[in-house]
Amino acid sequence: MVTIEFKQAVGRVYLDGGLTEDGKLIRKSKTYRNIAKNADADSLYKALEQLAQLSDYPFIGAEKVETSNVIN
Asked: Distance between CA 40 and CA 25 in Å, rounded?
């Protein structure tokens, strides 16, 4: 039987770095490792939003990226 095993999760914060000469958004990101597998969406969003406030750039959004192993 093949199973999927959780490996790790990271939280990624996206920040507004301004505009290019062409008027396109410059999106900066910061990644935070060791996010708990069972972190609920509300708590994770609030934590990443608070971490983003330590930056000089305005907060755009956040995401959780999970990596898993497929084991046979």
From this structure: 30
